[in-house]
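Known limitations

Files may contain more than one protein. Parsers should not assume a single record per file. Below, a two-record file is shown to illustrate correct handling: read the sequence, read the token line, then continue until end of file.
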Amino acid sequence: MSERILVVEDEKSIRTIVEYALKGAGFDVASVGRGDDALEALARDGADLIVLDLMLPGLDGLEVCKRVRAERNTPIIILSAKGEELDKVLGLELGADDYVTKPFSPRELVSRVKANLRRARLEPERGASIRSGDLEIDPVARTVRRDDQEVGLTFSEFEILHKLAGSPRRVFTREELMNHLWDGNFYGDLRSVDVHVRHLRQKIEDDASNPVLIRTVRGVGYAFGGEDGRP
């Protein structure tokens, strides 16, 4: 059975291009032009992935992203114009998994869709839970708990945290982290990892402005814990 893609784009010409490219790649495609219609379609028929424009009539793409992420972990790819840098960052902070900048190559979009679906289908990595203080990371259940309270993370946030915590004190470059997320096939803006890390800190740190779990190594990347390996 083909995987179902929900395309949310108000410009008919772009919507037609996206539909044609995705159907040509073998996907089952549904499309709408409004944010409120997207939520209705998702509730009615579901979707394996959402391609979401930001500038929409009615509910805008950021609000749609926020509402979807509050209820489900469906992968979301944002379509953003070059002048919408701030909105793109906000979309990632609200839980979007990826973005494609307009004007875009249909081939690139299809590649991103396939990559995100492949990530969503990944079997959980088997292994022992990782504990650090009151933080527990369970790679089998793909859950994170802090002080016995479950913390809701997106796919990307979990993968980054698990990668860092699995090798305390080791410094990972942004490129290493993104290539881990994309199975070595990442291409795009490395700054997106900073957005994921910032959002992750807001969820697991006592004080996101003074992080102790995820340490920034200026000019290089990120490491888990302090230089002594302890949070």
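...continuing to the second record:
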Amino acid sequence: MIAQPLPDSGLSRSLAPRHVTMISMGGVIGAGVFVGSSAAIAGVGPAVVLSYLIAGALILMVMRMLAEMATALPAVRSFAEFARAGLGPGAGFVVGWLYWYFWIIVVPVEAIAGAALLHDWIALPAWLLGGGLIAVMTAVNLMSARSYGEFEFWFASIKVSAIILFIALSAAYACGVLSPSGPTWGNLVSHDGFMPRGALAVLAGVTSVFFSLTGAEITTVAAAESRDPVRALTTMTTSVITRIMIFYVGSILLIVAVVPWDRIVPGYSPFTQALLAMHFSWAGRAMSLLILTAVLSCLNSAFYVTSRVLFALAECRDAPQWIVRLNARRVPARSVLIGTGAGLIGIGAAIWSPSGVFAFLVNASGALILFVYMLTAFAQIRVRRRLDASSLRLKVWWFPWSSYATIGGMVAVLLAMAFTPALATQFYVSLAALTLALCAYGITARHRRNAERIRA
């Protein structure tokens, strides 16, 4: 018998389809693509496009697994709860807490990054600007799920529109329409070839690229507060990630076509570098605003996700029951305020060591999302084997080999992290977090068994 959480969470159903669509797209299009892609390009060369395709295929398969489970188990409406449905309460506990931990780390990371961007324009202390961002996003998320969805709709709309505009301008330049020297597609092979660092560099690039693509699963959290959860899940988990892949791969391909890959400076937005190479003088200021929008969007989503995941954990009695209580707007206000506290603690610690605290927070999240995705993939395999496949409206392609291949791909990414000096710390810190979550479940399960014996 497949375990399922409570069918009615009591949360509002105020998110419209347009909100869920842009939430899922906005969850993936963040500062990782606008800035983080520079390191991947510099480390791999033009063949970084292949790294994005491989990483995107893994994410696409995870989303397809979620879509299959969503149609088979309509009562399960939260990302972390699919592991519980397939693997039991232990997996639900571990995945829920690891996923919450992943996003609670994002709150101070994005607040610190946003404060640093604002500090270039506003002559106020970074800690005050960061605190202001935390206060604004707290207020947005306390108002209602719809207010979060509305803010995220416009944040994501700006990001998507900007990428579409960039693709149009850079495609015209690469094809020679805007370029005074004619087509620039030769940049893909003229600087030591398409694969200057070799095939191994392409595989190693998947490690950093993978984390830029995470966040699409936010759809499965937001769907619980949409008007038609099952339809939202089944539609968005595959179609949206496909669109995002087009944006990601298309924009990165055009960047290395417009600018020789060996001129890309790690840590500096390659979009800005490409626009400047096309002689658009407004590029620097425009990209700074766009990156700030991406940071605010991610901060907004982090508040929302942490509050709903913690609420779901409490609903399944894996977190303190007082977190379950909703305010008059049917928002888990106490869960939101816990995110506020985490953000303020991170900003406060950054006063004494800005770079050190930021690096610690980034390392603290590390490979957590990979552990969560892998457990979700194992859950999908078990759920599929328990059901009549002929009755499923939506299926994972080429099951079970595609599911095994997806798990194998994520194991390869984890091994690459472990053997890459710059990423090894993140891997081992995340492994410690996984171990701690397993121990916590063991202690919790033992207490529950003792309590049941006493009641019996």
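Parsers that stop after the first record will miss the second one. For reference, the second record is described as follows. The chain has a mean pLDDT of 83.
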